[in-house]
Amino acid sequence: MRRYNVVLIVIDTLRADHAQGLDKLLDLGFVKYEDVYATAPWTLPSHASMFTGMYPSEHGIHETREYQLPELLNIARARMTKLNSGLLGHLKDEGYTAYIVTANVFVTSISGFNSDFEYVINPMTTVLTTRLDKILDQLYAKKGSRVKALLEIVKDGNINMLFNGTKLFVKRRIYNIYKIAKFFSEKAVRNKGGKKISNLIKNLDLKPPFFLFINIMEAHSPHNSLFIDRRRLRYIGKWLATGQVDPEAVKLWKNYPIHAHEAVKRALDIVETLKTRGYWDDTMIIVTSDHGELLGDGGLEHIYSLLDGNLLVPLYVKYPYRPKRQRGFITLADIPKIIDPSTEEVGRPVVIAETHGNYMPFKELGIKPDDRYFHHKIRVISQRIDFIYDATADVVEKIFRGQKEETIRILKALKQETSPSRT
Fold first, then answer.
1. CA angle, 319 as apex, 317 and 324 as ends, to 5°?
2. Which of 320, 322, 259 is nearest to 295 (CA)?
3. Which is nearest to 312 in space by CA: 35, 8, 19?
4. In this predicted model, what pLDDT tens digit does every residue of 310-367 receive, in sequence order?
5. For the chain, what percent of residues have pLDDT higher than 70?
6. What sign has the CA pseudo-torsion 269, 275, 278, 284?
7. Could you give phi then psi for residue 294, rounded to 5 degrees?
């Protein structure tokens, strides 16, 4: 049974080719792995794979024609609960205390990622929300206003909740003023809660053995002032509808490298904090990303595309024991295997990534819902072959490596593996 602490740091939306700054981790004893692929091009299915060790088609937490955001969160919550929250549940069953510290609300209990302690930072206002704050928000909603809720708390004589409720009320008012600066300043937008997370880790009461999950959002959009960024979704919609990237759209992603650098800096700060606090020799630390970002190189954002810019991610691991050897390609679904001390190697001869369609609101994208935005596409990657297969249309969309004949042979084998007679 493992008794070492486990820390999983996800730098949301960080492409592998913009993660060179993480090489500083090598001086601290980390191992760097190459050819690491996300299982999906966006947060929810990718994190579900990291926590469960399953591909999106296996865990079922992905967009469909019937379910996009926000309805998809209910599906995720039900399926993650059925899967015992993956790593979170398994480690808790082994006696671990589980912590989630995240600036991405999708990776919280709202989607079935259930921990003992949960700290959520709003990336736009950088306001920290705890479980008590959520209880207060529910009370606010029930009473119809914050003032009525606070009066009810006074009536009940709950001094502690009154103090926290008043503090939350004032804090949100102050940070909403701070958010105004982000409408006019790209520099202000760079801070998406990473500083708050770094400071929180310095003082967080961690109870070993613990599992600590951290998600930082500095590399995620927006990469411009909110005033300029308001055009971004329409450009994405135009690309989805036509397959062509508007040259003007690319300008909205020119600041991505700056934001990626900021994200890397925050991750390094967190690692140094853990070392300073003494969580080192008996602690495994994994630093990775959930997906990348298309910057005009074949598409935009991280949506409905299985190109390298969306899928290739960094992976650095500091082991509390002998490092695992890499054999073949690595998928983020291998994270549970990396954490498992009984295995000496990590990797597979073949990895896949999947998209089941668009997850963004069509109205905001400026396009009408259509079945063509919900094709199930699979990218298959090995030493000999690399291609994208549109399973809905039953056609090979693109071949990156390998011969057409071999691609057809692999597809036949995949279809046999997934045919009803085999399940």
1. 80
2. 259
3. 35
4. 999 999 999 999 999 999 999 999 999 999 999 999 999 999 999 999 999 899 999 9
5. 85
6. positive
7. -85, 130
